[in-house]
């Protein structure tokens, strides 16, 4: 695949629900959704990502702030490539590109 993924995914981690943004190789938004932090919702979200990637989980790069836990384990078990990003780095990026104090989980998932 020449080191290019078919699908790039950012997951913004929250305590009850996580926001997901899926991008094509040109970094255009394909789809967005949120999913609850519960076993069946996590599994359904991983299946949804696999379908978006054309059932090629190795062609999917997922970035998120948390390097461990149920979400990460589920994605890795299904063959998606998961990359942990530094939460401080994401926070500083969001500070630069948003109105002070503005919170937007959809934007945060996109920039992940």
Outline the fold blueprint:
Blueprint: E1 7-12, E2 17-23, E3 29-36, H1 39-52, E4 60-64, H2 70-77, E5 81-84, H3 87-96, H4 105-111
Parallel strand pairs: 1-4, 4-5
Antiparallel strand pairs: 1-2, 2-3
Summarize the structure.
With 112 residues, the protein is an alpha/beta fold.
For this structure, the CATH topology is: Nucleotidyltransferase, domain 5
Oligomeric state of this protein: single chain
Largest sheet: 5 strands, mixed
- Helical content band: 25-40%
Distance between the termini: 22 Å
Number of individual domains: 1
Low-confidence stretches: none
Structural class of the secondary structure composition? alpha/beta
Task: Report on this structure.
With 112 residues, the protein is of the alpha/beta class. Helices cover 35% and strands 27% of the residues. It has one domain (7-111): Nucleotidyltransferase, domain 5, CATH 3.30.420.40. Strand 1 and strand 2 form a beta hairpin. Helix 1 runs parallel beside helix 2. The mean pLDDT is 82.
